Amino acid sequence: MIILRQPSSRVVVPVLVGLGILLGPGFGLPDASRASRALSPVLSDYEVIRLEPGDVQQQVRTTGELRFRYKETVFDFKLAPHDLRAPNYQAVETGPGGVRRILPRGPVTTFKGRLSGQEDTHGRFTVTADGVEGVVFAPGERY
After folding, report:
1. Is 125 in contact with 137 (CB distance < 8 Å)?
2. Which candidate, 37, 35, 115, places its Cα nearest to that of 79?
3. Which residues make beta-bridge pairs with 132?
4. Which of 75, 64, 79 is nearest to 14 (CA)?
5. How far apart are CA 17 and CA 10, in angstroms?
6. DSSP string, the chain
7. How far apart are alpha carbons 136 and 116 in whole angstroms?
8. How far apart are CA 46 and CA 13, in angstroms?
9. With CB atoms 3.0 to 4.6 Å apart as the test, which of 53, 86, 111, 125 could cross-link to 134 if both were Cys?
């Protein structure tokens, strides 16, 4: 038996923000109508947020801030790197003949932080030159 539930607003907001940021111009979407066609069958309320991923990455790395507008609300997050990898994490590449090579540890791409002025609202984001994905936890709020 499969039971489908309507997601709560606490879950919908993170997905909406994450999808909106992800669907920026760096992902080849020529206009908002293409994003709308993709999202309309599964979401009843959303807003596409267009950000330049490279600019966002630079801003987060230099200032620790991520700022975007969603449904007339400005989200201004103060972020800090949050490495999710274990201390002994290793990326390994297997080449021809099964030869394994340990790859250098790359930079941290995951961040966490709080919304300025609202300590009970926090976010988790993955920020790279290719895009931004994120989750915003806002108890009791609907955006």
Report:
1. no
2. 115
3. 127
4. 75
5. 11
6. -----PPPHHHHHHHHHHHHHHTSGGGT--SHHHHHHHHTTT-SS-------HHHHHHHHHHH-EEEEEETTEEEEEEEEE---S-TT--EEEE-GGG-EEEEPPPPP-EEEEEETTEEEEEEEEEEETTEEEEEEE-TT---
7. 13
8. 9
9. 125
- pLDDT tens by residue, 118-136: 888 989 999 988 888 888 8
Cα distances from 115 to residues 72, 88, 137, in angstroms, run 15, 32, 10
DSSP string, 30-57: -SHHHHHHHHTTT-SS-------HHHHH
Pick from 47, 67, 49: nearest CA to 116? 67
At 95, give phi and psi (nearest 5°). -105, -165
Pairing of strands 91-94, 118-128: unpaired
What are the tens digits of pLDDT across the range 58-112?
Answer: 899 889 999 888 777 788 999 999 999 999 999 999 999 999 999 999 999 999 9
Q: pTM value?
A: 0.63
